[in-house]
Amino acid sequence: MQTALRDYYRAFNQRANWVRNDLLYVNELEKYEQRLIDEWEHAFAAMEDDLSECIGVTEEEKIKEGRRLFSDIEKKDIRIRPKCQEAFVMRGSYHMLANQLKVGWHIDFYDRLKQLLNM
User: Which Pfam families would you find in this protein's record (predicted)?
Assistant: First the structure.
């Protein structure tokens, strides 16, 4: 958890610095986030496929698979630019997307999100 908070903080500050100093192209952050979401969608769909083959999946198994998805995503190398080698940018950006409810790690993410939005 501590490393996730550190990545979030560092990515937030780095991205704010880029914006503040006008170092990004128009919509570059939005396009980058969409690439991250697209990669997450593929990984999430694979997790859904794996779990749909199982009968009677327990909450513990769902949590375990969500953690595996999170770990797999963190190991990817999706850069905003080829020369931006700081891995915290990608990892922290995923945390930002999760805070915005654009990505999630639990298999029931969409169902839980719908319940929250219907309240």
Answer: CTD7
Instruction: Please tell me the distance from the alpha carbon of residue 34 to that of residue 110, in angstroms, as a whole number.
Output: 18
Q: Does residue 119 surpass a pLDDT of 70? A: no
Under 8 Å CB-to-CB from 47, ≥6 apart: which residues? 65, 66, 68, 69, 107
How is residue 70 written in tokens? Answer: 């999170």
Residue 48 phi/psi, 5-degree rounding, is -60, -45
This prediction has a pTM of 0.90
Domain ranges of the chain: 2-118
Closest CA to 106 of 64, 46, 72: 64
